Amino acid sequence: MAYQPKSYRKFVATAATATLVASAVTPAFAASFTDVGDRYKEAVDYLVANNLTQGVSETQFGVDQQIKRVDFAVMVAKAVLTQEQIDSAKDSGFTDVPDRGVKYVNALKEAGIANGKSDTRFGASDEITRGEAALMFAKAYKITGNTANIAFSDVSERYAAAVAALVDNKITSGKTPTKFGTTDPIKRGEFAIFLHKLETLNPVDPGQTAKKITDVKAINDTKIDITFDGAFDADIADEIEKDPERIVVFHGGQTANSEEVIKSSFISFNADRTGASVILADDVATVEAGIEYTVALMNGTDNEVADVVLKSQPTVLKAGADKPTVEVNKDQDKFVLNFKKKMSAEALDLSNYTLYDENDKELGELTDFADEASKWVDSTEKTAVEFKIAPGTLLAGKTYKVKVDVAVETDKGDTLSSSQRTITVKTPSVSEAQPVAKVARIVGESIIVTFDKDLDGEVNFNRSLITIKSPTGKTLTIGAGLSTSGNELIIPIEQGAGDVVLDKDLTYTINLPANGVANEVFTNATNKEVTGLKAVAQKDIEVKSVKAELVRQSDEKTKADLLLTFDQRVNLDTLVADGVTIEESGKEYTLQAGADIEIYSGDTTGKTIKIKDVRDAFDNDFTPESGETYTVVIAVGAVQTDAGDGAKFNRSKLKASLTGVDVVAPKIDKVTVESAEKIVVEFDQAIDAKNLKASDIKVLGFEKYRGGRFEELTLQGSTQLKFSASGDTLTITPADSSVKFQTGAGDDALALVTIAGAAIKGTNGVVAEDLLALEDESDFIDNAAPIMIGADATVPDGLTVTYSEPVDFDSADAANAGSQYTVEGAERDSYGTTATVADNEVSVTFKDNVFEDGEDYSQTKVIYKRNSTSAVQDADGNEQANATLTGVSNSN
């Protein structure tokens, strides 16, 4: 609590604990002192946390130790004086003060708080008594009391006023009912209790019931709302509002008097003056994430010379970037770094990440472990980065650490704290990463075994340990040249070895030993033993039927794969791409050459193929939608039975019905402004809004303040907005009567309503990760009539009414237009004689002089009653309804 001049004592309030994001909790410093009991704990915590004093050792506060006058002076000066007052004070003339206390004693004397025991002697080494402490405390904190209430027998006239001040303000009640202990030395424990009570004291000024801040909330990046425990005097509130730079925000490297503080640009008390809304300027600096700030009310607009009247505890005003996570995707081939917030381009640069093993040994930059350039998981959201893991660079079943460079920050400049920049990542266990054989089939003179994971290309099987047997138990001879391709192991069979040959009409049983092939990415994970795998014979039978299914990818819901299941196994090598099409209401989408196609390992018969990512695989921007039905068409001669060279192609066109799945997030289809108090947002699909918060929604609008003033704002958060969701519709309404929406958005139509990414998803689970906004102005519907949002008395006989959008009169008759307006509750009631309009402002001239300079018209009413010839309307012909506006600002 800073020492304040007497002329400004009416503004003094406690240095309140005020939080913007979460309540600040004073660290439990007292817990480290073994001599601090419950009586002293709160006071000691406060003093140590605010750097007013420390313990006498790491384990002792010294509650029973006495205090020298110089030490007392240092602590009191730190508590009540600014650093400038301490540093600039003139020499006191005392010759017995040690260097550590000189500037503090100088400052206390200059401020009239402390005197010496003589002109040259302060008594620095003397133990300070309770009476002397009372004198300094009363002067430092400008408190008074009634000496008639003093019943102590040991308080002389010299100390009476000071002791009365401490007693009446409930700082102390004396040592006994009859003894204050005036000449007793004050102990450090007593001092801590006294100073803590004084620091949190709320002197009551006549006419002012607000004593402290009870709550402070951050509404958005630039607006804060402050709540007091009582009402401010109207004159005080008016004076503060007229000097809107009296609130400052500063961090630990600054003081309230620093040049670089963030100042308020707008302060407005609510109607009963128990709270205030504050808008912060951003011309010098902006609040940074993760940094503790103090919010202070000053006694002037020039913060470099003004004093602090009220301040908050240091606390984080704006949350920093969330700690990212790193994981391996379900397909076990990618690293995904999820930041949970929109990031800047530095997050894409893999040289900004360094990989360490579990023993903190540096392994290199992530560029050394990537098989391709990194990319955004969603290029519009930019909250997560992924890159393909270079084969053989990492091991399964290991724990690694990724350290993030300080250059990586959000798109708003928020950075990670040092503790957040080290992220632990675990690779899949060896068992999870082991390739598992799923399908075996006969292809030409080989048997091909399909695994559920790609293989690294090395084959380490001992051929003699591989057994392939016919139905009668005859063993085939394994030829030389075992090889892999993708996720397939190719086993050549020697033909004509004795009487055993590979017969495509038979089914063979395959046994493979363990550890013959390895996972392409995690090469320490080798295959498990395979027993009894069947390579079912595929006879040369023409493919005559197909079934089709769309399946969303497990780790990328914005992608879907097409599964085609035939009645025979088909040869992928001879598949004719442009012979596979998807048809929908006259539109045709053709499979492109080079599409990613493989045997689907989830079907052990080998009859299903998987066409990956249909949006990429088919032309003409094919995008499936839930509820839609498509037809898959396989042209004649497009697929060949997998029965070796010369096998049959299909001789008839094949068709299969296909049900769509949504692979895109919901989009805003239409925005309808029903009124200044209701907006209806329609989406292109049903939405799941259970995770949506009012802070995720932004609406252009207005908020009215005391005295008729209003601000054009981006409305956001539960204090300004409410919403409800049903089906494909989101309805937004104001949370308070002082809030109105912009009508007739005009050029702002596309920005009127925006919804944060990752707040809404379709009922299919696809998240709307990018910012949601209307994309076409033709889908904006304005059914809202204009409303009066503010009025300003500009001349004695006139005022200007501001509307929620540009307006006009439906006739040019100024007199008829003016007669629609009356004013009540000013110096006199009157009616309009003329009115003119310009953009969204109507200037009304009244019959009488109704406003005077300097008067408060916060309860004055402006009444609009439309007539048949000059109604107020917007560009779409929506007419203003009869209305009353309460509160006129006075710039007359």
Automatic annotation (TrEMBL):
<dbReference type="InterPro" id="IPR001119">
    <property type="entry name" value="SLH_dom"/>
</dbReference>
<keyword id="KW-0732">Signal</keyword>
<protein>
    <recommendedName>
        <fullName>SLH domain-containing protein</fullName>
    </recommendedName>
</protein>
<dbReference type="Pfam" id="PF00395">
    <property type="entry name" value="SLH"/>
</dbReference>
<feature type="compositionally biased region" description="Polar residues">
    <location>
        <begin position="879"/>
        <end position="892"/>
    </location>
</feature>
<feature type="domain" description="SLH">
    <location>
        <begin position="88"/>
        <end position="151"/>
    </location>
</feature>
<feature type="signal peptide">
    <location>
        <begin position="1"/>
        <end position="30"/>
    </location>
</feature>
<feature type="region of interest" description="Disordered">
    <location>
        <begin position="869"/>
        <end position="892"/>
    </location>
</feature>
<dbReference type="InterPro" id="IPR014755">
    <property type="entry name" value="Cu-Rt/internalin_Ig-like"/>
</dbReference>
